[in-house]
């Protein structure tokens, strides 16, 4: 069974600083995607970044980047130059493989960016 | 613009009543999903459907039912058998093989009164 663990229920960071959110997972698949979603106070789920497991290069989207360690099954999210609008719940997600595709989510990390 | 529409945004239900949450998408996505979100629990899968007229139970299907008569629509019924229905419910759909993750609706907050 797929599992996703986010060990930091809450984190805070000062505006303009850098913060890293942790995620570890377990899967028997060899080729898969990993995702980070953001849920701001509006509760709309927004895809932040995705990583293809067969790619060694870490994904980057503007101020968001990942540190993907396939052997360690670790997928952390780094947010650079934090902004007040980054305040949100962040969820790590892993899909199951095969034809019954479905995403398994971690329990989330509540990130607060302080002015 | 394409997207997923969930309605209503807020819903109140009396104990013992069934209630139906609407989810409509105009993205032409084949697969649709219902998740339940509780504080500290993340998102838990209730039901999902990969094609019209077919659906599968997720991890917490007890007390819920769904239908998928049209590609665009995937309504969720919360029945009186669901012991603790107060939660935030999210509908999602998937493009292609899943490499793009999900697109989510804006959610429905259900409260039992």
Task: Please explain how this structure is put together.
Chain A is an all-beta fold. Chain A contains no helices and twelve strands. In chain A, a hairpin with a 6-residue loop joins strand 5 and strand 6 (46-52). Chain A is globular, with a radius of gyration of 14 Å. Chain B is built from no helices and eleven strands. By secondary structure, chain B is an all-beta fold. Chain B has strands at residues 4-7, 10-13, 19-25, 31-38, 42-51, 54-57, 64-66, 76-78, 87-94, 102-104, 108-112. In chain B, strands 2, 4, 5, 6, 9, 10 and 11 form a seven-stranded mixed sheet that branches. A four-stranded antiparallel sheet of chain B has the order 1-3-8-7, with no helix packed on it. Chain A binds chain B through residues 9, 33, 35, 37, 42-45, 47, 50, 52, 91, 93, 95, 99-108, and chain B through 31, 33, 35, 40-43, 45, 48, 50, 56, 58, 88, 90, 92, 94, 97-102, 104, 106-107.
User: What percentage of the residues of chain B does DSSP assign to strands (E)?
Assistant: over 45%
Q: Give me the Rg of chain A, rounded.
A: 14 Å
Oligomer: heterodimer
Helix content of chain A: under 10%
Decide which structural class fits the backbone of chain B. Answer: mainly beta
Give the SSE layout:
The complex is a heterodimer of chains A (115) and B (113).
Chain A: E1 3-5, E2 10-14, E3 19-21, E4 24-26, E5 33-39, E6 46-52, E7 60-61, E8 64-69, E9 74-79, E10 88-95, E11 103-105, E12 109-114
Parallel strand pairs in A: 2-12
Antiparallel strand pairs in A: 1-4, 3-9, 5-6, 5-10, 7-8, 8-9, 10-11, 10-12
Chain B: E1 4-7, E2 10-13, E3 19-25, E4 31-38, E5 42-51, E6 54-57, E7 64-66, E8 76-78, E9 87-94, E10 102-104, E11 108-112
Summarize the structure.
By secondary structure, chain A is an all-beta fold. Chain A contains no helices and twelve strands.
């Amino acid at each position: 069974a797929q599992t996703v663990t986010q060990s930091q229920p809450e984190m805070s960071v000062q505006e303009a600083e850098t913060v890293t959110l942790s995620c570890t997972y377990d899967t028997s698949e060899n080729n898969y995607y990993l995702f980070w979603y953001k849920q701001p106070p509006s509760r709309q789920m927004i895809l932040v970044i995705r990583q293809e497991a067969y790619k060694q290069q870490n994904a980057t989207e503007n101020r968001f980047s990942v540190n993907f360690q396939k052997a360690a099954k670790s997928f952390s999210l780094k947010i650079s130059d934090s902004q007040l609008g980054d305040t949100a719940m962040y969820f790590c997600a892993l899909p199951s493989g095969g034809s019954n595709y479905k995403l398994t989510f971690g329990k989330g990390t509540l990130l607060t960016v302080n002015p | 613009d394409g997207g997923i529409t969930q309605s209503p945004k807020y819903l109140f239900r009396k104990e013992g009543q069934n209630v139906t949450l609407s989810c409509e998408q105009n993205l032409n996505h084949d697969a649709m999903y219902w998740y339940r979100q509780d504080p500290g629990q993340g998102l838990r899968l209730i039901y999902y459907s990969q094609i019209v007229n077919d659906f599968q139970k997720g991890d917490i299907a007890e007390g819920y039912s769904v239908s998928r008569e049209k590609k665009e629509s995937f309504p969720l019924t919360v029945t009186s058998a669901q012991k603790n229905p107060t939660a935030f419910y999210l509908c999602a759909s998937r493009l292609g093989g899943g490499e793009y993750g999900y697109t989510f609706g804006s959610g429905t907050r259900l409260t039992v009164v």
